[in-house]
Amino acid sequence: MGVLVLGTVALDTVKTPKGIRRDIIGGSAAHFSMSARFFTKVSIVACVGEDFPQKNINLLKSKGLDLDSLSVQKGKTFHWQGEYKGDLNTAITLKTELGVLSSFKPNILKKQREIKYVFLANVDPDIQQSLLKNMHSPEIVALDSMNYWIDTKRKSLIRLLKDVDIYLANDKEAISLSQESNLIKAAKSLCRMGPSMVLIKKGEHGSLFYDGKYFFALPAYPAEEVIDPTGAGDTFAGGFMGYLAKCGKVNALTIKNALAYGTVAASFNIEGFGLEAPARLKISDLNNRFSKFKKYASF
Amino acid sequence: MGVLVLGTVALDTVKTPKGIRRDIIGGSAAHFSMSARFFTKVSIVACVGEDFPQKNINLLKSKGLDLDSLSVQKGKTFHWQGEYKGDLNTAITLKTELGVLSSFKPNILKKQREIKYVFLANVDPDIQQSLLKNMHSPEIVALDSMNYWIDTKRKSLIRLLKDVDIYLANDKEAISLSQESNLIKAAKSLCRMGPSMVLIKKGEHGSLFYDGKYFFALPAYPAEEVIDPTGAGDTFAGGFMGYLAKCGKVNALTIKNALAYGTVAASFNIEGFGLEAPARLKISDLNNRFSKFKKYASF
C-alpha cells in the first residue's frame, strides 16, 4: 500500500540520565519511518538545511525509504535541544531553532499524491492542511499534533480534524484539546470533532483507542531501562500506520495488531539515543517481541 | 475453598465532586468481601465498636459473609474521613479515629485456621503477622499495606514479606518500599524481598503482575464517571483472591482471569459511594462486564 509521512527530519541534542548526544538525526518523520519501513514503503515529506550531514541521508536511504520529497533547502536544519530528568516521561525543551522549517512548503511528486495512507506528523496545522489538499484520494489520514499548536493554532487544528480519520494525541494533549476531565470523555469528545478514530498515547501507561463505538486499551511494553524516550510516540505511530497500510484495511483485528506493533516498535526506540536502536532492528526482532507482548497483555 | 480476610470494617465520611456521605460502612475487609463473595465463602476478621449500626451487620450477613470473627468491642468503630478532588486519584485524609482498632487483637475460630486462601488487608503489619501465625497451613497468603506502615513499621513489614506469597501495592507504595525508580524494577526488587508474586495497582492505569519470571499487565476498565473511588483497591483484591480461591490453583491462566475479575469488580465499586454499587451487584453483571473487558483489553 505505502504510507506517506509529512513531518520533520531534524538534528537533536538530547540529554538524559544515561548520557548526552549532540546533533544526532531526529524528527518526527525520521522516527516514524524507522518503524513503518518494516511493513510498507515509506515516503518522507520533510525539509533539511544544507548543514544536514550526508551520512544521515545515507542512513535513511539504506533503510529503503523514499526520499524524493525530502528537500534540502538553503539554511539550517531544524534543531531541537532537550533534556529528560527523573521519570523520563516529559522532555524539557531547552532550545528550538526552526531554521528551514520556518518557510517549509511541502511539495510532493505527482505519483506520491496517490498514496492511500497518510500520516501528518507534528508540524504547523496549516502545513498539514496544505499537504492534505495535495493528496488525491487518501483512504486513511492520521494526524498528530502538540500542545504548542493546540494553544496557538486551535482553530486551524479543529478545522483540520474534520478532514482526518485518526487523531493521535498524548494524554495531556487529549485533555487540553477536548477540555474534558478524563481520557474516556476526551476520546468521545475528540471523535465528535471529526475523526472517526482517536488514539491516545499514555507513555509508560500504554495506549487507549476509540472508534466511536468501542474502546480498546493496551499497556506499554515493560521497560526496565530507558536510554532516551525521544521519538517514542512517532515510532509508535510508524508501527501502527505501517501495519495498517500493509493490511490495507482497518477493522478491529488490524487495529489491535497495529497498536501492538506500534507499542513494540516504541519499546525498541527508547533503548538507545535517537534512531540508534530502531536503525539496528530486524523484522524478526519486532515479531519476537510482538509474541512476548501478546502473552504479556492478553488474557 | 474459602478465603479469610483480615482488615477493617469502618465508618467512612467521604466527600467527592459527586457528593458527600457521612458514616457509611467502609473499610478494607468490607470492600474486599463485597467482591470476593461472588466466588467463594468469605470469612471476615475485623472489629467494630458498639456504635456500629445493626443495619450494617445485616447488610454483610445478607451477602452470605461469615462474621464469626467480626468482634464487637467496647468503644467506637474505626472512622475515616476523606476527600477526593480533581482527578479523584488520591484521597486526602481529613481525619482518622482508630477507636477499637487501636487495641485490635485478631482472634479466629479453630475451623477458620484451616482456610487456605488468606488476605491480609491493610492494618498494622504486627497485627497481620499475629493473624498469620494462627493460620494452620495456608496455601496462598496475600498482603496489602500502605505508605504509613512503609514509613513507620518498615522492619515489621519487610519481615512479614518473607512469609507471604503475593504482595499487593499501589504504584507509589511499590516505589517507596523498593526504593527503585520504575515499576518494573520495583516489582523485581519486591519479589527478591520474599513474595513469589507481586501485584502493583495503578488505579486508572490498570495493574502490573510479576511472578519472578513473567510480567503481565492489564489496563483499568474504561470509566467515564467516578462517584467514589474509596475501596477500589480492596474490591480489586477481593475479585482477584476470590477467583483464585474458587479455582483452587494459581497458574498463568487463573492469575490472568483473577486480575481481570478484580479489575471488573473495582470498576463497579467506583460507580457509587462506599458499598452502594457492589452491594447491588449480581454475578451476571460481573460476568457480562468481564466479557466486555476481554474484548477491550485482549488482542
Q: How would you describe what is shown here?
A:
The structure is a homodimer of 299-residue chains. By secondary structure, chain A is α/β, with parallel strands linked by helices. The first copy, chain A, contains eleven helices and 13 strands. In chain A, helix 8 runs antiparallel to helix 9 (252-269). The mean pLDDT of chain A is 96. At the A-B interface, helix 7, strand 13, helix 9 and helix 11 of A face helix 7, strand 13, helix 9 and helix 11 of B.
In short:
With 299 residues, chain A is of the alpha/beta class. Chain A is 38% helix and 25% strand.
The helix tally of chain A amounts to 11
Strand content of chain A: 25-35%
Structural class of chain A: alpha/beta
Provide the CATH top-level class of chain A: Alpha Beta
Summed up, the domain count of chain A is 1
What is the spatial order of strands in the main beta sheet of chain A? 5-4-1-8-9-10-11-12-13
Q: Report the principal-axis shape of chain A.
A: globular
What oligomeric state do these chains adopt?
homodimer
Instruction: Write the CATH architecture name of chain A.
Output: 3-Layer(aba) Sandwich
Record field, number of beta strands of chain A: 13
Helix content of chain A: 25-40%
Distance between the termini of chain A: 32 Å
